[in-house]
Amino acid sequence: MTTNFQDLLHRALLIFAAALLAAAPVTAGAEYLGGEPILTASVAGSNEFLPGSDSVMLVVIENRGIPDFKLLPQGRVTAEDQPSTAKLVKAELGAGDAPILVRTDPQMAGDIPANSRVEMPFEIKILRNATGGTFTLPLTLAYSYLSFAEERGSESIAYTYREAQTVVPLQVRVTPRVSIAVIDVQAGELTAGNEGYLAITIRNEGSLGGNESTARITRHEESPVIPVAGSSYIGVLGPGAQVQGRFKVQVEDHAQAAWYPLDIRVEYLDPNGDVVTSEPVVIGVPVQGPIEFEITSEELTIPKGGTREVEITFRNCGPMTVRSAQARIVAVDPFTSARDSASLGDLAPGQEATVSFTLSVDKTATVKEYGLESEVRYRDALNNSLISDPMKVRVKVVERSGLDIVLSNPVYLSLIAVILIGTGYYFHTRRKKPSE
Length: 436
Hints:
Structural class: mainly beta
CATH architecture of the largest domain: Sandwich
Radius of gyration: 50 Å
CATH superfamily of the largest domain: Immunoglobulins
Strand content: over 45%
Number of helices: 3
Number of domains: 3
Helix content: 10-25%
Oligomer: single chain
């Protein structure tokens, strides 16, 4: 009987304890979550770039973390964030020691759950004189992740996050290339409307030597400087080598005194025997402006029906010396010329020369001002024979007056001849009479 009483008491205590537990509120409990984000990165596609190029490098950021956390008991509040999720990821790409300029500022990648990835583009510029080789770009990834969650009450959880940062090295390769820099440009006597030579000195600032190299110049857009002989063979162009090429160009007539652009590049064979062309370099070519002449002498006057020796002064208004210059005047009706050309010789800029021409005017010519064309033929520095633009010589035809009227009238000339003969005969006979 004692035993039965003890059993009944034990059961009563158990039922009372269970009732107390069922009636008691849920107490706060802590759950420690495990697992962290593991971020890695790589370059999508090719990681090889050319010196001087602008590129968009696509970077893949991947979270290889494992979602390792403890499930909360049934009836408890479930945590929304997982400890393996990288939250608010910010990516910043640096150049390190690479000859690269990163143009993209740090950017947000957002949240990256475990076993997920995002792609982020970065604009980069490879320096024109970059040395070939493999370089490391540091990619800094800053993020936060859930490190602790505490249940408070029956419907809320307090989260604790931890800040983290990791630096992922990205490997890129810069392809070695010939990269030229222009050291000097000598244009000589290059004037508008004429041809001339350019002496261009270039240096290979790249890390690769070119075999069977040839320098080539090409017209830059609508520049008035146009290549005539646009290639110059160089041969072997090693790193740091400096050579000079000689080219022939022509300048269009409308060019003024200014600097005009011209492109130059180098074609060469790389170590694989492939033909490669370097990035073009724009150079400035100085043009001295056109060769021009002007007539500085005053208006000429010739009586109609008369002939005169006239003097005309020519001035070289151009920027260059002209050689073996020869002036010519074009006599048209009612003018004729017994001598229509004369030598000016060599004329330096601003120098003048005066030459003579013989002009005759028909006696039926109208009294007025006429314009006769004149031109100068000369040779440039390349011994090319050139002709100037035509110039106007102002000649005024006037009526005869005074002695011109007498000398131009045959009747008057005959009378003068008779008078002179009679006068001479008279004095001759007078001298004979005293002796008789």
